Amino acid sequence: MLIQPGEVEVLIRPEKVADRPAVQALIAAAFAPADHADGAVVEAVLTDELRRDPGWIPALTLVADRDGVVVGQVTCSYGAVRASDRTIPDRRVVGVGPVAVLPDYQGAGIGSEMMRALIDTADSAGEPALVLLGSPVFYGRFGFVASSKVGIASPDPSWGEHFQVRTLTSYDPGLVGRYSYAAPFANL
Predict the structure, then answer these.
(1) Residues 81-100: pLDDT tens digits?
(2) What's the domain range around 48?
(3) Is-contact 129 166, C-beta < 8 A?
(4) CATH number, residue 181
């Protein structure tokens, strides 16, 4: 069953504990390589580890619910922007990812609905910005720009324009420095 764009109505809501088995299965399905056998999918392991990390943000970890079935999910956790001047304290910033949609529902606009809901929720919560590693073409439509344009350096310079920032209402142009993700990302 392949869903066409515009065919699916979903409720975007915070992830519940009861959603976790379905979320883990959907992340594994969304990210599993074609030759995937029984090995763990990195993004599923990462999501599970992030939930146990103090940087995990339950209010910004959202699911797309279609008639009680979880068909999409976005995980959010706090990382930090560290200025080169060590007298300036680190500033926490929301790291977005993984973002996953069940394969049969990809291309139907669910990922876009989740991103719009995430941006609105984070903005309402007073977060200054969102950062992520992803496609500039996809995420650019939501106002994400290369992080270098706002003075935030990526954890890995080779990521180039794929490391992106979406500034929000509470953004402060003094938020500059190198970004580091929540601790579980270091295990990748």
Answers:
(1) 998 888 888 999 999 999 99
(2) 11-187
(3) yes
(4) 3.40.630.30
